[in-house]
Amino acid sequence: MSPTMASVHQLAQQSRAHALGLLRGLQDPHAELLAMVWGPRFDREHALGLWAGFSRRDPVQALPVLPAMLVLADRFDALSAPVQHRLRRFILKHQSLQTAAV
């Protein structure tokens, strides 16, 4: 696996457990995820809004998500632009696979 893919894969693996709860029940979870990573910096304001909704639905499950989300935001910001782009493409590919499966 290339270093670029290793970075993307590691970030995806770390975020998967928390993303499931954070994005559960949303109409288009891929669009919400892309909104957080579309720019050169992680959109913390958007993420906090999603987290606030999650914490109202399930406060116990939401508690550990906030610190993990902020760590992932910092890790995303530290990625080079090509790696960030690769992560976005990875999300889009997953979205197309999910759409095709439905």
List the helices and strands and how they pair.
Layout: H1 3-23, H2 29-37, H3 44-57, H4 59-62, H5 65-78, H6 81-101
* Class inferred from helices and paired strands: mainly alpha
Proportion of residues in extended strands:
under 5%
The count of strands amounts to 0
Q: Write down the overall mean pLDDT.
A: 86
Q: Residue ranges: pLDDT <50 for 5 or more in a row? A: none
Instruction: Choose one word for the global shape.
Output: globular
H/I helix tally: 6
**Spatial separation of the terminal alpha carbons:** 30 Å
Domains (count): 1
- CA-based gyration radius: 13 Å
Elements, N to C (H/E): HHHHHH
Task: Characterize the biggest β-sheet.
Answer: none
The percentage helix is over 70%
Tell me what the structure shows.
This protein has 102 residues and is mainly alpha-helical. The protein has one domain. The protein is built from six helices and no strands. Helix 2 runs antiparallel to helix 6 and helix 3 runs antiparallel to helix 5. It is globular. The relative contact order is 0.17.
